[in-house]
Amino acid sequence: MENMTPLYGPEDIRALERKEKNSRLLCWLLGLGALAACVLFCFFADSGSAGKMELACIVTWTLAGWLVLYLRRFVTAETKYELQHAQMLNTGEAETLRGRVTVTNERLRIIRSIRITIVQLENEQGAHRLKVCRSREKKLKAAGEELTLWLVNGYIAGYSV
Amino acid sequence: MRVLKNIVSQLHVYIVWLILSAVLWGFVFNILTDAPAAKKLVLFAEVESSRDRELSAELEEHRPEGIRLIQVHSFDYAMFDEQGLLNADFYIVSAASAEEYRASFRPLDTEKFSADGLTLLELDGQPCGILVWDGEKGSAAAYLDYGEGEYYLFLGANSLHAGEKDDAAYELLREILQLP
After folding, report:
1. Do A62 and B17 touch (CB under 8 A)?
2. Is B98 part of the contact surface with chain A (CB cutoff 8 Å)?
């Protein structure tokens, strides 16, 4: 493992942790901000403006809710899945395979987990279908074609040239 | 493109959220903008439809001292606020229904407003209602869609504002009678 370049280094893990924390914080800020705005709308409402203010509350709350739902589902949750995946790769038992590596266009999504890309490795023993987290696809492509891959549970954890 | 795809994949969630927001803020808005009974006057009208908020806004321009809020509802609203209906300060009711709701009205104190030129409805020998719609013309017709027949304005039996110390209801009654 000495020469291995991990797909998730300590800096990558810290970046993922920051991203998850920040998106969670943003969700809270959006929720609290929307609530504060709605309470203000109620506070400034009188009978003449009640209809408009009530509509403003509904629109504000709905839009903020949509944003929070989007962030939680497609940013916070996916970052969390990727973080768990990275931790699994860095702590799991690895095996190695050397051969010619091709990143395919075959992309899959695992429900409640990461998005993956299928990687083909060919050597004397034949062709192997391996998986890499989609966000690490570019890093693997940039490494070249003839590689030794470190694998944990069929997922690529790192490589060496 | 990916954002759009993500949104479409969760469209049902966004639609449910929109419906929940509308229902939630329908209730919460009314709770947060409400005032205690001592600081509000409530009118319930037995009409098919009403421009509640416009009429409230118009009456609030002439609100008596100490009153923060004036609410107007049609009788249909009672399904959300039965207690509100029972404790209302004013009722506008058709002549045909007056007897049915008799227990909810209080006799008018004719010393607190000028009854000159007004047609009063007597129940149990006491003046209780003031004619506000004679079938063709009357008060607040710009805001209330009266049905057929005559309509009368009554003071609520449980009103906190129609007594000796607090006669804000009589003050507003005069304003209601002057409305176009």
Report:
1. yes
2. no
pLDDT band at A55 (very low <50, low <70, confident <90, very high): very high
Query: Residues A64-86: pLDDT tens digits?
Result: 999 999 999 889 999 999 999 99
Q: What is the ipTM of this complex?
A: 0.77
**Contact call for A46 and B60, based on CB within 8 A:** yes
Contacts of A42 in chain B (CB under 8 A): 28-29, 32-33
CB B40 within 8 A of CB B69: yes
3-state class (DSSP) for residue B93? strand
Query: Contacts of residue A46 in chain B, CB cutoff 8 Å?
Result: 57, 60
Q: Please give the sequence-ordered ranges of beta strands (E in DSSP) within A2-145, or none if there are none.
A: 5-6, 95-109, 115-123, 126-133
Cα–Cα distances (Å) from A58 to A85, B54, B73, B129, B134, in that order, read 38, 20, 22, 40, 40
Q: The whole model's pTM is what? A: 0.75
Query: Which amino acid, A4?
Result: M
Q: Which two tokens stand for residue B179?
A: 């409305």
Mutate to test the interface with B, among A38, A47, A54, A74 (most CBs of B within 10 A): A47
Q: What angle do CA A83, A89, A90 make, to 5 degrees?
A: 90
Q: Is residue B71 within 8 Å of B88, Cβ to Cβ?
A: no
- pLDDT tens per residue across span B99-148: 999 999 999 998 888 888 899 999 989 999 999 999 888 899 889 999 89
Residues from chain B contacting residue A71 (CB–CB below 8 Å): none
Which residues does B2 contact at the CB level (< 8 Å), separation at least 6?
none
